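Ticket #4471: complex job returned nothing on first submit. Input attached below:
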Amino acid sequence: MGFTPRAFRGPLVTLFAAAVAGCGSDSPTGANPRTGAPLPVVGHGETTVRYTAELWTRGTVAYTSTWGQRSPTAFGNAVYIWNVAGNTPVMVDSLIVENATTLGDIQVSDDGTLLVVATERANGSIVIYDLTNPLAPTRLTRYETVNTSNGVHTAEVARLGGTLYAFLSIDPPTPRLVIVELSDPRNPREVLVRNMGNPFVHDVFVRDGLLFTALWDDGVTIWDLGGGNRGGTPANPVQIGNVRTAAWSPSAGGSRAHNLWWFHDATGGANAKRFVFVGEEAPGTGSVLNSSNGDIHVVDVSDMAAPREVAFYHVDAAGTHNFSVDEEKGILYAAYYNAGIRALDVRGDLSACTAAQKSSDGRCDLRKMGRELAAGLDANVPTFIWGVHFDGEFVYASDMLSGLWKLRAASR
Amino acid sequence: MEPHDSTRTSFGLRAQAIALATRVDPGLANRSYTEGYLAQPLIMAHGSALDGHLGGVLTLDFEGLTLDRGQLNPGAYGEGYADRRHPHTYLHEAIVVAAGAFGRLGVSLAGGKGFVPFGTDDPMTRPFAAYPVNHHLAQILERYVAIAAASAGPLTLEGAVFNGDEPMSPGAPPDASRFGDSWAVRATVTPRSMPEFEGSFASVTSPELVTGGGRDQRKWSVGARLAQPFGLLDHALVEWARTDELVGDVKISRFTSILAEASTAVLGATVSARFENTTRPEEERLLDPFRFSRNPTDLGIIGITRWHIGTVAVSTPLPARRVDVAPFVEVTYAHPSEELTPSGFVPQDFYGTASIWSASVGLRLGIGKMIHRMGRYGAGVPNVRSPVPSGGQHAH
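Support reply: We reran it on our side without changes. The output follows.
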């Protein structure tokens, strides 16, 4: 390989990011300067052949998916496998999914045995890999039916009553949620197809027998799958409640409910299971890779039948994307596209604030409440952070532009 | 077929098509493409009755049969096609017009499927085989539409409601349940012996996401065209168009276009030239790299590309009885560049170069005559006395 500026870029970017991380400088995007401490960059596994999308980590292995088309021959049809044991993530292998242009979600099952990858656009499907050797996944099957063929935008893997399921959010023109049982991962079994979402169902979160669906402008709907005492099952979810979260801008209207996390504070207490965090994704004043909009919304689910938004977090000229939560420390990590990563203190009563800390519509503003603990990758290096994954001592971030970042996690 | 000339009824019929071969270098990834087509195969009819108080227009377009893969056309985009011009719907126009007059004021009501009173004349009626990039900025067509028009002296006003959704495929009808979610107004002024000036605005709800809930559009257009030959010019058009895309009332993207074109006669041939400076949205391409998803990723676009394009066409009508035959040659140079950085679409990477050449040779074929000006109906056709048939000027 010849000596090129691109080859030189990775180490320089890492060094530069680390250098400016301590300076507290403003983002070049115009996003709000952070108010908390920096998240130190530990290492950067650079890849610029394809656009990087979602990530998942387990132990010393990370998996990143890819998106779109970066060059005529570089579609988002690859899964990259990284050894993250050292400071700098090292790409050790890749998987190519044939007849795919975008791989969206990627997730390892809770027992570490399966890797599930969504394929979007035509030929929508999930591809299931065996992780007996985490560094060399072997494909078990590609599950594609008439109900998934429009494209699987997200795929969430969760266990209910000991049984593993995948929850597939299917693209328009007929947006729908498809639930498949993965007891035999070579032969997934469809248990539910239900149309929902306006204009689409984007993502779900499953915990304790409850299903939370992010239905874009239809907001967030909570369903009983067996844990809500409403007679619901995966084959027949029963609606419990719905909330339309606010827009990042009053004139924008709509909810754009994109992703969710029902927070369980490991320290317990009255607020331990009270809040659901909802990511709002809105187009930026430009295009993907250079702008974004959308807030984090805090929904009080004390009464699951009547959830209500009580707080929010806003960054000017930037929007949030996927979350990961350190439930031991009560810290929410949010990918923030062109504003990097934000880490928020989410322990305690997020609905309790002073009048000065409220917005005009009565919601508590987490920024004014001093809830911003830390920020990362928001310095003068172009990044566009799709996903974050908290994994003990570190937080990993997938950067659409440059690959996989490893940062030291925040402390309280 | 000659139109009947009657005070009670009239009827006109025309069939036409363009047979052509096109080479684009590069189409993408430094690869050249050479293809042949039967483009714009149309059957057009109009009729009127009751002394012109009742009229109708019908245009059938068979591109769904001949252009399913799209026509190589660098910069063209829309309805899921990119760098290939998409086929139009089989039922291109089917409009019924009721017209009348109150003194010097001509009025009409028109309804059916057809053109929205917005922007300039359709590229199909102009002297180039290649479409301009700005087609989706400067025209709105193939919608269920209801139009009220009034005309007095040099001033023509039109207002319309329609469905915002763009066609999903040549055979797919508009979503009738969305009729009325969008509207447009157009004013046209035609001073004596002067160009025809139009200014128009349209509010279009979720054109790309047919189910609704997608980005909305606010569109402006200002244009000037020669209504009749003037000096050396047989045809001329200058237009400016702008489309803002919105989430709610928040503007998130803006696309603009400036276009100028003209034709003149040289030694028995018609020589036409066009220059265009237009920005277009980029969306995620599919396995077929000339197609993009109609479901944009979380309603976002992946980039904006500015296209500078120059086109020259030479056409020579041949003498023939009852049929129109006009061989032509057309050459286009295009220079695309990304408008925003970083961008999810970098033209130089995608095409392999920032200079794209394309050339077409072919024959324009037609039989019959039409006095229907495509895209305008009833009193919305300037300089026509009311009551009027469905149109009033020779546009083909």
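Confidence is low (pLDDT under 50) at residues 1-6, 386-396 of chain B. Closing as resolved unless it happens again.
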